[in-house]
Amino acid sequence: MKYYYVYILKCIDNSYYTGVTNNIERRMYEHLTGENTTCYTYKRRPITLVFCEEFNDINQVIAFEKQVKGWSRKKKEAIILGNWDKLKYLATCRNSSHYSNK
């Protein structure tokens, strides 16, 4: 069975990079050594792997990566800390003009 991974790296500038791979060890090596000079992480090394989730369906991994890339920093930090329950709270609109807050 083939496995795929969505991962989040924390860069030296405290930004996050989200990626997908079918070989996490190889991909980490590429990030750490700066093999691709045009990669987001190249000028933001050293990097640290802070999240990695395994999938066995390519469609699921692509969808999850796309979803995570669109998330706020707080949502990414919630899953990094393993606090999946906090995602629902962070997704709820708390703006005073929202219908549920009237």
TrEMBL record:
<dbReference type="InterPro" id="IPR035901">
    <property type="entry name" value="GIY-YIG_endonuc_sf"/>
</dbReference>
<dbReference type="InterPro" id="IPR000305">
    <property type="entry name" value="GIY-YIG_endonuc"/>
</dbReference>
<feature type="domain" description="GIY-YIG">
    <location>
        <begin position="2"/>
        <end position="78"/>
    </location>
</feature>
<protein>
    <submittedName>
        <fullName>GIY-YIG nuclease family protein</fullName>
    </submittedName>
</protein>
<comment type="similarity">
    <text>Belongs to the UPF0213 family.</text>
</comment>
<dbReference type="InterPro" id="IPR050190">
    <property type="entry name" value="UPF0213_domain"/>
</dbReference>
<dbReference type="Pfam" id="PF01541">
    <property type="entry name" value="GIY-YIG"/>
</dbReference>
